């Protein structure tokens, strides 16, 4: 059977302990160091990623605010431009209406003056023709006293003040 020699067991145990220590020093510690370094790299990478994500979110929020502000400004500028254009339009329409009213008024006034002058000219012509006709009738008539009264009556009725010929 198997004999167990106590010294062999002790040497085997010592060999195992030495092998364990050597393996631990040679294999486990470097592997642990590599694992720790990789963990620290991963942790710093995750930390940097979280910081970058937070920074990106802050930038995104800032840009959204800037875009909203720009939209509000552009809408305000558009509204102001519309209001300015409307007021300019209203002003131009009011000026055009005023100018049109002035032109119409001037035309009416001119027409009235022209009508008045034409009427005065017609009255003057009619008075002249009536006087010429009355003269011819009076030259052929013997009633000179009655003729003068008829002539004076005619002049007052037709408006001697409107006579521009001075007759």
Number of helices: 2
What pattern of helices and strands is seen along the backbone?
HH
How far do the termini sit from each other?
181 Å
Tell me, briefly, the overall form.
Answer: rod-shaped
Structural class: mainly alpha
Quantity of strands, as a count:
0
Radius of gyration: 63 Å
Helix content: over 70%
Detail the poorly predicted runs: none
Mean pLDDT over the full residue set: 85
How much of the sequence lies in strands comes to under 5%
Largest sheet: none
Q: Can you walk me through this structure?
A:
The chain is mainly alpha-helical. Helices cover 89% and strands 0% of the residues. The protein has 2 helices and no strands. Helix 1 (6-139) runs antiparallel to helix 2 (144-158). The radius of gyration is 63 Å and the shape is rod-shaped. The mean pLDDT is 85.
What descriptors fit this protein?
167 residues, 2 helices, 89% helix, single chain, mainly alpha
């Amino acid at each position: 059977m198997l004999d167990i020699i106590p010294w062999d067991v002790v040497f085997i145990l010592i060999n195992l302990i030495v092998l364990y220590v050597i393996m631990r020093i040679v294999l486990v510690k470097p592997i642990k160091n590599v694992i720790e370094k990789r963990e620290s790299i991963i942790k710093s990478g995750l930390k940097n990623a979280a910081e970058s994500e937070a920074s990106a979110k802050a930038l995104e929020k800032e840009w959204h605010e800037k875009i909203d502000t720009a939209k509000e400004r552009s809408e305000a500028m558009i509204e102001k431009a519309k209001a300015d254009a409307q007021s300019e339009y209203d002003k131009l329409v009011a000026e055009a209406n005023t100018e049109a009213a002035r032109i119409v008024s001037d035309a009416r006034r001119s027409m009235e003056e022209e009508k008045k002058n034409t009427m005065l000219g017609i009255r003057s012509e009619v008075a002249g023709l009536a006087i010429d006709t009355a003269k011819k009738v009076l030259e052929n008539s013997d009633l000179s006293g009655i003729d003068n009264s008829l002539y004076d009556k005619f002049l007052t009725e037709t408006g001697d003040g409107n006579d521009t010929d001075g007759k």
